Amino acid sequence: MSKIALVDDDRNILTSVSMTLEAEGFEVETYNDGQSALDAFNRKLPDMAVLDIKMPRMDGMDLLQRLRQKTSMPVIFLTSKDDEIDEVLGLRMGADDYVKKPFSQRLLVERIRALLRRQEAQDGVEIPETDENKIIERGELTMDPLRHAVKWKGKDVTLTVTEFLLLQALAQRPGFVKSRDQLMDVAYDDQVYVDDRTIDSHIKRLRKKMRSVDQEFSAIETLYGIGYRYNEE
C-alpha cells in the first residue's frame, strides 16, 4: 500500500481528498502546513507528496526545496489559476507535475498512479506489459510509459505527466490530427473544464522542452483552427 502525504491549509481539501485516496487503496497522511509535513518527513518519508503552494509557516516551494536535498520521491503541486509562474518555478525545482484547483478527485488519482508507476519502474519493480505501456519509437523519439521516460535523439527530456500524455497521444498515430478536444480528453476528465488556451500552453511548454535538447525540433505541427499532429522525422 503506497503512502501519500497530502499537505494543504484547506481542511476541506484535506478531508475530501484523503477520503478519496483511502477509498482507492492508499494510505494517507495529512498536514495543514509545510513545517509540520517537513518534521514528519524527517522521521519517515512517504512514497509521494501532494503539496499546496501557498501555506502558512512553510510554503510548498520551500518544502519542495528541502525535500529535493534528500529525496527524489514524486511530488505533485496543487496550484490556483493564477499560479502559472509558481508552476514553472516549481517544475524547475523538481516537482513532477501539478494539478490546478479546482480539480476532480479522479484527475488527481490518475496523476498519482502514473507517477507511482514511474517510480516503481525506476526502482526495478516488475510491471506487466500492456498495450498502454509499451515503448513507443517514432523516428528520433523514444517514450517509455512505465518509466515515464522520454528521449529525443538519445537525450533525456523531462516532462510532466500532462505533457507526457499529450505527446504520447500524438506520437501513437503519426500523421493523424488530434483536435484540442481530443487532447483535453487525454489530459483531463469530463469533470474539469479547460479551454483551448490550456492545451496550447501545454503544447508550447512541451515544444520548449524538446527544443532544449534539439533546437531544430519540429515534429509537433500546429494546424490552426483544427489541432495538432505528430510528424515522424
Question: What features would you describe in this structure?
Answer:
This protein is of the alpha/beta class and 233 residues long. The chain has eight helices and twelve strands. It has helices at 11-23, 34-43, 60-67, 84-93, 105-122, 161-171, 180-187, 196-211; strands at 3-7, 27-31, 48-52, 75-79, 97-100, 136-138, 141-144, 149-152, 155-157, 177-179, 220-223, 227-230. Helix 2 runs parallel beside helix 3 (60-67). The protein is elongated.
Strand adjacency order, main sheet: 2-1-3-4-5
Strand content: 15-25%
Q: Please mark out the parts with pLDDT under 50 across 5 or more consecutive residues, or reply none.
A: none
Helix residue percentage:
40-55%
Subunit arrangement of the protein: single chain
How would a crystallographer describe the biggest sheet?
5 strands, parallel
Question: How are helices and strands ordered from N to C?
Answer: EHEHEHEHEHEEEEHEHHEE
Query: Rg from C-alpha positions?
Result: 18 Å
Please give the count of helices: 8
Which whole number gives the mean pLDDT? 84
Principal-axis shape equals elongated
Beginning-to-end CA distance, first to last residue:
42 Å
Total number of β-strand segments? Answer: 12
Could you say which structural class the secondary elements and strand pairing correspond to?
Answer: alpha/beta
Short description:
The protein has 8 helices and 12 strands.
Describe how the helices and strands are arranged:
Layout: E1 3-7, H1 11-23, E2 27-31, H2 34-43, E3 48-52, H3 60-67, E4 75-79, H4 84-93, E5 97-100, H5 105-122, E6 136-138, E7 141-144, E8 149-152, E9 155-157, H6 161-171, E10 177-179, H7 180-187, H8 196-211, E11 220-223, E12 227-230
Parallel strand pairs: 1-2, 1-3, 3-4, 4-5
Antiparallel strand pairs: 6-7, 7-8, 8-9, 10-12, 11-12
Helix pairs in contact: 2-3, 6-8
